[in-house]
Specification:
The complex is a heterodimer of chains A (about 300) and B (about 525).
Chain A lengths: L4 E12 L2 E12 L3 E6 L5 H8 L7 E6 L2 E2 L5 H4 L2 E5 L10 H9 L7 H10 L13 H12 L6 E5 L7 H15 L3 E5 L3 H4 L5 E6 L2 E7 H7 L1 E7 L13 E7 L2 E6 L6 H10 L2 E8 L2 H14 L4
Parallel strand pairs in A: 3-8, 3-9, 6-7, 7-8
Antiparallel strand pairs in A: 1-2, 1-4, 4-5, 9-10, 11-13, 11-14, 12-13
Chain B lengths: L3 H30 L12 H24 L17 H30 L4 H29 L3 H26 L18 H25 L3 H18 L4 H10 L11 E4 L13 H9 L6 E11 L6 E13 L4 E7 L3 E3 L5 E10 H7 L4 E16 L3 E2 L4 E4 L3 E7 L5 E9 L5 E7 L10 E4 L15 E9 H4 L7 H7 L2 E22 L12
Antiparallel strand pairs in B: 1-2, 2-6, 3-4, 3-5, 3-7, 7-15, 8-15, 9-10, 10-11, 11-14, 12-13, 12-15
Helix pairs in contact in B: 1-2, 1-3, 2-3, 2-4, 3-4, 4-6, 5-7, 6-7
Classes of the chains: A alpha/beta (about 300), B alpha+beta (about 525).
Chain lengths: ~300, ~525
C-alpha cells in the first residue's frame, strides 16, 4: 500500500458481458480525507465502490483497501469499514433493535453508548421491522449500523438519494459528529451537501478517472474567469482547450480555466483578447466544477 | 471468535414460528400414524396423513429456503456482504440451523413414535440417524443449494420448475438417442426396478450430493451464481445420464459384490424343449411388480421355450434379474435383440424348470418364423438362500426377531387365519417369507413372501422412513388342521409362524444357446400366467 492511502485502485477494469463499466480506473483515497467520487449517472462510481468492498470482482487491475487486496478482505478488515448505500438491502424481516444487537457481536470496537446516542438522535424505532420503514428511515438505520464501531473507512454510495432536506441535514450532522479520524469515500450527486466536508475529489467519466485532486488544489486550479473587455466581447473561433464553457455577454466573457495560475492565465487572456479592462478569477462551487467537467466530457471537449 | 451460534440465534429469532410449526405438524402426523399394534391401522385417516405430510414437506422446504435467503448470496446489495461475517461461519450456521430446527424434531418424533410402538430407543436412534442422514443428503442439501442460488422463494420455485423441465427434456433426448435402432423405448434406465437399481440410485444420489456441495461451495465462497447455474445444469444432465448405466457393468459390479460367489458355481441352465415349470416362487410379489412395468404386448407374438435349471441348493430361489435375448440368422446378422420376461424358481431336489416367455414384435416374427436361426439367452441370475429364524407362536405371538424386528401375531377377527405384523427400526430384509407350521406334525404350509428385491450391501440399505413394516394374513388352510376349533385349539396345537430370510448370496451369469432353431417351434401353447 502506498503510505497514507486507505483506498488505492490501479488500472481497474470491469466488464459486465459486452458492457465495459471501468476502463483502467486509478483512484487514491488518502488517509483522513473525505473523498468525493463524482460523475454522471452510469460513469462507474457504484461499480468502483462495489469493487472496493469486494462485492464484485474486477476483470483486471488491483484494488487495495486498508492495505489489503480487496479480493482478500477478511472479517478483520471489514470490521474497520463502514458502508452506507442507497440500495443497501438490510434484512427486512428483522427489527431495528434486533439487527443492531446482531451486528454488535461482529465488531470488537462497537460502542454501545455511541449506538444509543445515534438511535436517540436519529429517532430510530427499535421495535419496528426494517422492511416496514420508509426509505429515509432505512438509510438512517444503515448509518446507525455503520458508525458505532468507529470505522477507519466509511464508504457512502449515494446516501442522500430519496432523502428529504431534514433527513439529509440530520445525516450530515451525525456524519460530521462522528467523522473524527475516519476516512470517507462518498459518491453523491448532492454536491452542495458534501462540499463542506470534501477534502479530495475524483471525477469519473465512462469508467475512467478524468481528474483527481485535493479540494484546495482544485479550487486553486479550476477557476471561473470573467474578463471585461474594452468593447463588446465576441468569442474567438479557437480558445485554449483547457478553457471550458466559454460565454460572452456585452463586454464580458467568461470561461472555466482548468489550469488556472495567477500569472499564466492573465497573460494568456491578454495575448488573445488584447486590451482588457478587468480579469476576475473566482473559485467555483463543486457543483459547478462537476457540471462544467461533465458537459465538457459529454461534448468531448475535455483537455 | 466463533460466530456460528450467534448467526443461528438470529435465524431462529426470524424463523421460530415456522420451525415450531414444522415440529408440531410432525408430532400430529406421528400421532395419526401411531399404531399401538403392528397390524392395527393408524388412528388418522389416510387423507389427513397425506395432507399433513404435504404440509410438512412444504414447511420444511420453506424453512430451509428462508434461512439461506435471509443472507442471500446472489446480488450485490445485501448488507451482510460488507460486514465482518465469515462466509464459512455463515454456511456452517445455516447447516447447523437445518440440523437443529429441521432434523432435530424429526429425530425426536421418530424415536418417541418408535418407542411408543415397542421398538427400542437404541434401534430407533440408529434408524432415525440413518434416515435423517439420507434426508439431509438427498433433500436438505439440494434445497439449501437452491436457496443459495436464489434470493426469493418465488425465484426458488421457478428454478426448481426449470430444473425439472430440463431434466425431463434431457431424459427424453438421452433415451431417444440411446434407443435409436432399438425395438424398445423406455424413459427409465435399463436397471430401473431391478435388485441392482441401488447402483444407479447411489450414482444418482452421488451426483445430486456433489452438485449441491459444489453449488454451496461456489455460492458461499465465490458468490459465483453464473457458474453455479452451469454446475446445476451439468449435474442434472449427469443425473439423467447415469440413469442409463448399462446392465452389464452394473451387474458385473453386483457379481463382484457377491457374498458367497461359490454358491452359484454349480447352477446350470439348459434348453429343454418340453420343460414346464411350477408357478413363480416369489409370485405374486415380485412378478406383479415386474408385470406392471411391462408394456402391454399388443402387436407382439408370444413364444415360450423350456429352460431347465440344475445344481440349486435345497430351498434356494434362483431369480433371473434380466434375460437378454439375441436372435441371429445364418449369416450372423442380428434379427432381434431385446430383453424378455424374467422369472424365479425353486427346487427341493436341486433341479427344476421354467417356461421362458418371449414377446417378439409380430413384424420380426413374421420375417423370421420360417428361417433357421440361432437363439441366445443371456441370464443375469441371483441365488437367494434361506435362513430360518426362530418361530413365533401363531396365536398372540410377540417377539423381537433378530434381523427382522418386533413381530406380533393373532387370530384374525373372523377366525379364518392368522395375522402377522412386523415392525423394524430401519429396513426390513429385502426378501423374507412366512409360513404356518402345524405344532403336532411340524408340517409347514406354503410360504407367503414379502419381497422387494434389493441387493445393496446391508450397510447401504436405509431409507427416509425410520420404521419399515409389513402385515400379512396366513389363511388357516395354509398350515393346519388346527384352527377349526377356534383359538383354543390353535393354542393347544402349538402352531407357529416360521420366518425365512432369503439372502442374495451369489450373482452370476449364464448363457443358453439354441442353434438351428425355428421360431415356429417356440409358439407358446402354455396358458398365460
Amino acid at each position: 500500500m502506498t503510505t497514507g492511502a486507505v483506498v488505492r485502485i490501479r488500472s481497474l477494469h470491469k466488464r459486465f458481458g459486452s458492457h465495459v463499466a471501468l476502463k483502467g480506473l486509478d483512484l487514491t483515497v488518502p488517509e483522513g480525507s473525505a473523498y468525493a467520487l463524482i460523475g454522471a449517472n452510469g460513469a462507474g462510481k457504484t461499480t468502483t465502490i462495489k469493487l472496493a468492498v469486494n462485492v464484485i470482482a474486477p476483470t483486471s487491475g488491483t484494488a487495495e483497501v486498508l492495505g489489503v487486496d480487496t479480493s482478500s478482505l477478511d472479517s478483520v478488515a471489514f470490521a474497520q469499514i463502514g458502508y452506507v448505500s442507497e440500495n443497501q438491502a438490510l434484512p427486512r424481516r428483522m427489527r431495528v433493535g434486533d439487527y443492531l444487537a446482531y451486528l454488535r457481536a461482529f465488531y470488537p470496537a462497537w460502542d454501545r453508548e455511541l449506538e444509543t446516542s445515534m438511535v436517540r438522535r436519529l429517532q430510530l424505532p427499535l421495535e419496528r421491522r426494517i422492511g416496514d420503514l420508509s426509505h429515509g428511515m432505512r438509510i438512517k438505520v444503515a448509518l446507525a449500523c455503520a458508525l458505532p464501531y468507529r470505522p477507519k473507512l466509511l464508504i457512502l454510495d449515494e446516501p442522500f438519494s430519496g432523502l428529504d432536506a431534514l433527513v439529509r441535514d440530520e445525516f450530515m450532522e451525525d456524519l460530521l459528529m462522528q467523522a473524527g479520524e475516519m476516512t470517507i469515500l462518498i459518491s453523491s450527486h448532492e454536491l452542495a451537501e458534501i462540499e463542506h466536508i470534501t477534502t479530495h475529489v475524483g471525477f469519473i467519466d465512462s469508467g475512467r478517472m478524468l481528474l483527481e485532486d485535493s479540494m484546495s488544489d482544485l479550487n486553486a486550479r479550476i477557476r471561473e474567469v470573467r474578463v471585461t473587455l474594452e468593447g463588446p466581447a465576441s468569442l474567438p473561433e479557437r480558445l485554449p482547450k483547457e478553457w471550458l464553457d466559454p460565454k460572452a455577454f456585452g463586454n464580458v466573457l467568461s470561461f472555466v480555466d482548468t489550469r488556472y495560475t495567477e500569472t499564466d492565465t492573465p497573460s494568456r487572456v491578454r495575448a488573445i483578447f488584447g486590451s482588457v479592462r478587468l480579469i476576475e478569477p473566482r473559485a467555483l462551487p463543486l457543483r459547478s466544477v462537476f457540471t462544467t467537467l461533465a458537459r465538457a466530457a459529454r461534448d468531448g471537449a475535455l483537455p | 471468535m466463533n460466530k456460528v451460534p450467534h448467526i443461528v440465534r438470529k435465524d431462529w429469532q426470524l424463523l421460530w414460528p415456522l420451525g415450531c410449526g414444522c415440529a408440531v405438524l410432525q408430532a400430529v402426523l406421528a400421532f395419526l400414524e401411531y399404531r399401538p399394534e403392528s397390524f392395527s391401522a393408524g388412528s388418522g385417516s389416510n387423507a389427513a396423513a397425506i395432507v399433513l405430510s404435504l404440509s410438512i414437506g412444504i414447511a420444511l422446504v420453506l424453512t430451509m429456503l428462508l434461512v439461506v435467503q435471509h443472507d442471500a448470496l446472489p446480488g450485490v446489495n445485501q448488507d451482510w456482504l460488507v460486514r465482518p461475517i465469515r462466509r464459512r461461519d455463515l454456511l456452517v450456521a445455516k447447516i447447523v440451523f437445518v440440523l437443529l430446527v429441521v432434523h432435530g424434531p424429526i429425530m425426536v418424533v421418530h424415536c418417541v413414535r418408535g418407542m411408543a410402538e415397542g421398538l427400542s430407543l437404541g434401534a430407533m436412534l440408529r434408524a432415525s440417524l440413518l434416515s435423517n442422514l439420507e434426508l439431509a443428503l438427498l433433500f436438505s442439501l439440494p434445497v439449501l443449494a437452491v436457496g443459495a442460488l436464489t434470493k426469493t422463494v418465488t425465484e426458488a420455485l421457478v428454478t426448481v420448475l426449470a430444473a425439472l423441465l430440463f431434466t425431463l427434456l434431457s431424459a427424453i433426448i438421452v433415451a431417444s438417442v440411446i434407443m435409436i435402432g432399438s425395438h424398445e423405448f423406455h424413459l427409465g434406465g435399463p436397471i430401473d426396478d431391478s435388485g441392482i437399481d441401488w447402483i444407479v440410485d447411489s450414482l444418482r444420489h452421488g451426483v445430486l450430493i456433489l452438485t449441491a456441495v459444489v453449488i454451496l461451495g461456489l455460492q458461499y465462497f465465490r458468490r459465483d451464481t453464473r457458474r453455479s447455474r452451469i454446475v446445476l445444469g451439468i449435474g442434472l444432465l449427469l443425473f439423467v445420464i447415469v440413469a442409463r448405466l448399462p446392465w452389464r457393468p452394473a451387474f458385473a459390479l453386483q457379481e463382484a459384490l457377491s457374498a458367497e460367489p461359490e454358491a452359484g458355481h454349480a447352477v446350470t441352465l439348459s434348453f429343454t424343449p418340453g420343460a414346464v415349470g411350477p408357478p413363480r416362487a416369489l409370485a405374486p410379489q415380485v412378478a406383479d411388480a415386474r408385470a406392471r412395468q411391462r408394456p402391454v404386448p399388443s402387436g407382439q407374438q408370444r413364444l415360450s421355450l423350456g429352460i431347465e435349471a440344475g445344481g440349486l441348493p435345497p430351498g434356494a430361489i434362483l431369480h433371473a434379474d434380466r434375460v437378454a435375448l439375441r436372435i441371429v440368422d445364418d449369416a450372423g446378422d442380428t434379427v432381434y435383440r431385446g430383453t424378455v420376461q424374467d422369472w424365479d424358481l425353486r427346487s427341493a431336489d436341486g433341479t427344476t424348470a421354467v417356461r421362458q416367455v418371449i414377446y417378439l414384435p409380430k413384424k420380426v416374427y413374421a420375417r423370421a418364423v420360417d428361417r433357421r436361426l440361432n437363439v441366445e439367452l443371456d441370464y443375469s441370475l441371483t441365488l437367494l438362500t434361506p435362513r430360518v429364524l426362530p418361530g413365533l407362536p401363531a396365536l398372540d405371538g410377540n417377539a423381537s426377531l433378530d434381523g427382522i424386528g418386533r413381530c406380533v401375531s393373532r387370530l384374525d377377527d373372523d377366525g379364518s387365519g392368522f395375522v402377522v405384523g412386523c415392525d423394524a427400526a430401519g429396513e426390513l430384509p429385502p426378501c423374507l417369507s412366512l409360513s404356518l407350521t402345524q405344532g403336532d406334525s411340524a408340517r409347514a404350509g406354503p410360504e407367503t413372501f414379502v419381497c422387494d428385491l434389493d441387493y445393496a450391501p446391508a450397510a447401504w440399505r436405509f431409507g427416509m422412513e425410520p420404521i419399515d413394516r409389513f402385515v400379512r394374513k396366513l389363511p388357516l388352510e395354509h398350515g393346519a388342521t388346527a384352527a377349526t376349533g377356534g383359538s383354543d385349539s390353535v393354542t393347544a396345537n402349538g402352531d407357529a409362524i416360521v420366518f425365512r430370510v432369503y439372502d442374495a448370496v451369489a450373482h452370476f451369469s449364464r448363457r443358453v444357446s439354441i442353434a438351428d432353431a425355428y421360431l415356429r417351434d417356440f409358439t407358446d401353447v402354455t396358458p398365460r400366467p
